[in-house]
Design brief:
Elements (H helix, E strand, L loop, with lengths): L3 E6 L3 H12 L4 E4 L15 E2 L3 H5 L3 H17 L4 E11 L6 H15 L8 E3 L1 H7 L8 E12 L1 H14 L3 E3 L2 E9 L2 E9 L5 E11 L5 H7 L8 E12 L8 E5 L5 E7 L2 E5 L3 E2 L11 H14 L10 E12 L13 E5 L5 E5 L5 H20 L24 H15 L3 H11 L3 H17 L4 H13 L5 H8 L2 H4 L1 H19 L3 H19 L20
Parallel strand pairs: 1-2, 1-10, 2-7, 4-12, 10-18
Antiparallel strand pairs: 3-6, 4-6, 5-6, 8-9, 9-10, 11-14, 11-15, 11-16, 12-13, 13-14, 17-18
Helix pairs in contact: 1-6, 1-9, 3-4, 10-11, 12-13, 16-17
The structure holds flavin-adenine dinucleotide (FAD).
Flavin-adenine dinucleotide (FAD) binds next to helix 1, strand 8 and strand 16.
C-alpha cells in the first residue's frame, strides 16, 4: 500500500464516516477493521437514526438539535437503508413524561430537530392511543405522544458508506487488525497490521492515524501510551426478537418500564424487536451475550405495558447484545451518561474519537477530518475541499431524491418477478440494495444455472454473489449477520440456507475442508448464541417470573 494521508483503525460507523469524508476531500485514506465491517457496536444498536428525544430529559439541547438535523441528511442520502416510522409514546400515571411534558418535549424536539411538517408530533387521547395500539395497557394510560423516528439497518448503513468511499478511491480492509503502532521521532506514522484470516502481517504508513475503534479506543490509546484523563465506560444493551404474530404491534412504541427507564418495541419485517437494557459491562468486548436476567427483564417490560401479550422465553426467536462506548462520568448510572462524542489527540499525534451515536457519525467525521486537513494544509501549504458529505449519496442511494425511491422499487419488483423471483423476494432485494439492485439482478441473470446446481434460490444466490463480489463478505456469518440481517430478523431463513451458503462460499473462496468446517461451526455458534442465554448450552431455559414482573 502506498503511503496514505490517513489510516483509520476501526471499520464501524465512525471509521466509515471518516473514510468517506476524508476521501471526498481528496485525501488518500484507508480503513482497517479487525473483524468484519460493523461487527463491533455498529450492528448491535437499536437501529434508529433518531433525533434523540430522550436527550431532552437530560437537557442536552444542542445534541438534540444536531442529531435531529443529521437524521434528515442520513435519510436523504440513503432512503433504501432508513425508513420513517411513527412512534407512540404512551403517557402513563407516574411515568417519565406527563401529558404536558410530552407535548412540550415533542414540540421542542420537532423545532430543534427541524422535523418536516408531515412528520410533526400529534397528541393522542386515551381512545386515540388505544385505537393506534390496542395492545397497550389501559390501566393508568393518560394518552400518548405520536411522532416520527427513523429506523435503519446499522450494519448496512456502515457498509453503504464504506462502499461510497471505496467507489471514490478509498481502501477498506476487513479482518485486518492493527497489532502495533509505528513511530518516527515520537510521532505515530502507521500501524503493523495482521491479516486475521491468514496470519500474514504487513505495515501501513500514513501522515495521520485515527483511532475509531469504538469500545476498543482505550486499548489503542494504551498501545500509544496515552491512556490518561478521560476513559471509556462500557455498558451493555440487549435486544430480543419475537415473531410479529406473537407481538403484533401496529406502531413502534417507546415506553416506560417499571424501573424508571424507557425502552423501544419496534415492528420490522414481520418481527418485533424489543430493547434495550443498559447495564455496566466488563466482559468480552467482541462477544457480549444476553444473560437470563437481561432476557427476563425485557420480557417483563413487555408483559407489563402490553399485558395481553404474555411473552415467554419460548417466544424469543433471536437476540443481540452490544457494548456502548461511552465516556466515563463519575457517579452516573449507565442510562444517565451522556452519549456525546469527544476527540483526544495524543502527544504522538494519534487522533482518537470516542463516544457518540450512529446518528451523529457524519458530524463526528467532519470534526476529525477538518482537524486533519487544517494540519496538513498548514504543513504542506494549499487547502482542501470543505466537508461535502451532506450531499453524497451512499452506495445504492442514487435515486435522484428520496421521493423517487417508491417508483424505483415498484419498477424493480416487477423486473425481479420477470427474472423468476417471487414478489416478496424481489421487494426485499430492491429495498435492501436500492439502486445497486440492478447489479444483483445482473448476477442472477448470469448465474441461473450455477444457482440451481448449488441448491440456492435465485434470491439467496443474487445476495450471496453480490456480498462476495461487492461487499467483501469473507465468512458465512458476514453474510447471514451483517450483509442480510437474517440472523436477527429471519432466523428460519438462516437455518434453511446455512448449508448451501457455506458450501458455495467454500468453493468460491477456495477453502480447505477444515476451513469450511470451521466457518460452518462459527455460524452454528452464532445461531446458538442468538437463540440462547449466556452460559446455556441447550435451548432457551424457563424464565424466573418472580423478580421482574410488575415491579
Ligand atoms: C444497545 C445499543 C443501542 C444503540 N442504539 C442506537 C440507536 O438506536 N441510534 C444511534 O444513533 N446509536 C445507537 N447506539 C450507539 C451506536 O451504535 C454506537 O455509537 C456506534 O455504533 C459506535 O460505532 P463505532 O464505529 O464508534 O464503534 P464500532 O462499531 O464498535 O466500531 C469499532 C470497530 O473497531 C474495530 N477494532 C477494534 N480494535 C481494532 C484494531 N486493533 N484493529 C482494527 N480494528 C479494530 C472493532 O472490531 C470494531 O468493529 C447504540 C449502542 C448500543 C450498544
Amino acid at each position: 500500500m502506498e503511503k496514505l494521508d490517513v489510516l483509520i483503525i476501526g471499520g464501524g460507523i465512525t471509521g466509515a464516516g471518516i473514510l468517506l469524508d476524508a476521501t471526498a476531500r481528496g485525501l488518500r485514506a484507508a480503513v482497517i477493521e479487525m473483524q468484519d465491517f460493523a461487527a463491533g457496536t455498529s450492528n448491535r444498536s437499536t437501529k434508529l437514526v433518531h433525533g434523540g428525544l430522550r436527550y431532552l430529559k437530560q437537557f442536552e439541547v444542542g445534541l438534540v438539535a444536531e442529531v435531529g438535523k443529521e437524521r434528515a441528511i442520513v435519510y436523504e442520502n440513503g432512503p433504501h437503508i432508513t425508513t420513517p416510522v411513527w412512534m407512540l409514546l404512551p403517557i402513563i400515571e407516574g411515568g417519565t413524561y406527563g401529558r404536558l411534558a410530552t407535548s412540550f418535549g415533542i414540540y421542542v424536539y420537532d423545532k430543534l430537530a427541524g422535523v418536516k411538517r408531515s412528520e410533526r408530533r400529534q397528541m393522542l387521547s386515551v381512545q386515540e392511543a388505544l385505537a393506534k395500539e390496542p395492545l397497550l395497557r389501559r390501566e393508568g394510560l393518560k394518552g400518548a405522544g405520536y411522532y416520527v423516528e427513523y429506523r435503519t439497518d446499522d450494519a448496512r448503513l456502515t457498509l453503504e458508506i464504506l462502499k461510497a468511499a471505496v467507489e471514490r478511491g478509498a481502501k477498506a480492509l476487513n479482518y485486518a487488525k492493527a497489532t502495533k503502532l509505528l513511530y518516527r521521532d515520537g510521532r505515530v506514522v502507521g500501524a503493523s497490521v495482521e491479516d486475521v484470516l491468514t496470519g500474514d502481517t504487513f505495515d501501513v504508513y500514513a501522515e495521520k492515524v485515527v483511532n475509531a475503534t469504538g469500545p476498543w479506543v482505550d486499548e489503542l490509546r494504551e498501545m500509544d501510551g496515552s491512556k490518561q484523563g478521560k476513559t471509556l465506560h462500557h455498558t451493555k444493551g440487549v435486544h430480543i426478537v419475537v415473531d410479529g404474530k406473537r407481538f403484533p404491534l401496529r406502531n413502534s412504541v417507546y415506553f416506560d418500564v417499571p424501573d424508571g427507564r424507557m425502552i423501544f418495541a419496534i415492528p420490522r419485517e414481520g418481527k418485533t424487536y424489543i430493547g434495550t437494557t443498559d447495564t455496566n459491562y466488563h466482559g468480552d468486548l467482541k462477544n457480549p451475550r444476553m444473560t437470563q436476567e437481561d432476557r427476563d427483564y425485557l420480557i417483563a417490560c413487555v408483559n407489563t405495558m402490553f399485558p395481553s401479550v404474555q411473552l415467554t422465553p419460548a417466544d424469543i426467536e433471536s437476540s443481540w447484545a452490544g457494548v456502548r462506548p461511552l465516556i466515563h462520568e463519575e457517579g452516573k448510572d449507565p442510562s444517565e451518561i451522556s452519549r456525546k462524542d469527544e476527540v483526544f489527540v495524543s502527544d504522538s499525534g494519534l487522533i482518537t474519537i470516542a463516544g457518540g451515536k450512529l446518528t451523529g457519525y457524519r458530524k463526528m467525521a467532519e470534526k476529525v477530518v477538518s482537524m486533519i486537513t487544517a494540519d496538513l494544509a498548514a504543513r504542506r501549504g494549499g487547502s482542501f475541499a470543505p466537508c461535502s458529505t451532506d450531499h453524497i449519496p451512499y452506495s445504492g442511494g442514487d435515486f435522484g431524491g428520496s421521493e423517487k425511491m417508491p417508483a424505483f422499487v415498484e419498477a424493480r419488483v416487477e423486473r425481479g418477478m420477470a427474472l423468476g423471483l417471487t414478489e416478496g423476494e424481489a421487494r426485499r432485494l430492491a429495498t435492501r440494495y436500492g439502486t445497486n439492485v440492478d447489479v444483483v439482478y445482473a448476477l442472477i441473470e448470469a448465474g441461473r444455472d450455477e444457482a440451481a446446481s448449488a441448491g440456492l434460490s435465485l434470491e439467496v444466490y443474487g445476495a450471496l454473489q453480490y456480498a462476495l463480489a461487492h461487499e467483501m463478505a469473507m465468512t458465512p456469518s458476514d453474510f447471514m449477520i451483517r450483509r442480510t440481517g437474517a440472523l436477527y430478523f429471519d432466523i428460519d431463513w438462516v437455518r434453511r440456507w446455512q448449508g448451501p451458503v457455506v458450501r458455495y462460499m467454500a468453493q468460491a473462496l477456495g477453502w480447505t475442508e477444515r476451513e469450511m468446517e470451521r466457518h460452518a461451526a462459527d455460524l452454528a455458534r452464532y445461531i446458538h448464541e442468538a437463540t440462547t442465554v449466556e452460559g446455556d448450552s441447550g435451548a432457551l431455559p424457563e424464565m424466573d417470573q418472580g423478580a421482574y414482573v410488575g415491579t
